[in-house]
Amino acid sequence: SQKIEQNSEALNIQEGKTATLTCNYTNYSPAYLQWYRQDPGRGPVFLLLIRENEKEKRKERLKVTFDTTLKQSLFHITASQPADSATYLCALVGNYQLIWGAGTKLIIKP
Amino acid sequence: GAGVSQSPSNKVTEKGKDVELRCDPISGHTALYWYRQSLGQGLEFLIYFQGNSAPDKSGLPSDRFSAERTGGSVSTLTIQRTQQEDSAVYLCASSLPRGLGSNEQFFGPGTRLTVL
Questions:
Q1: Nearest residue of chain B to residue A94 (CA atoms)
Q2: Interval A56-74: pLDDT, tens
Q3: Which of A13, A29, B11, B79 is least surrounded by CB atoms within 10 angstroms?
Q4: By C-alpha distance, which of B78, B89, B92, B90 is closest to B29?
Q5: First-to-last C-alpha distance (Å) of chain B
Q6: DSSP label at A54?
Q7: Quick check: A98 contacting B, CB < 8 Å?
């Protein structure tokens, strides 16, 4: 079955540095991969979508890469700020279902 | 404009009771999704509606779970004979109708269900 893995351990990054989060998947070739941010007690908020024919996508301080050979997406936040602290989720499509990773908790320390 | 709304925000019920959760999607969003999220876990896909029809209901955990959507708008998720393992946050999302996964999803605040 389709499986998505994100680093289950929290990622601690010093303010101003680049944070890199990983999303690995198996057993499928998704046409799209999405990244969301989720704050405690809130629903996820969409950040970026990348298509299988796109290697990289950028939005302000955010960058997503998509390597269909490695079956991996990387999510980067440059010049990180404490306000970037949240849980980040990746999701992809498989058989009419959106399959989600468990998320990585990112903590940006001042 | 209004986002996705869900009601109630919190629901505490006794084991064995039925509960009904409601979702009001963004106007014009014909795609609607239900998810379940347990504490510290990722989102578990339950069901997806395109208009009033659900192409795939296999994500529903058991036959105690059902969902419907009428008028291409409001959706209700019903859980019959609730069990303690049903306790979770139930999230609803909506999106434009351009194919599953190719559009951003807009989430509601969720309904926190606690089964005693």
A1: B101
A2: 999 999 999 999 899 999 9
A3: A29
A4: B92
A5: 37
A6: -
A7: yes
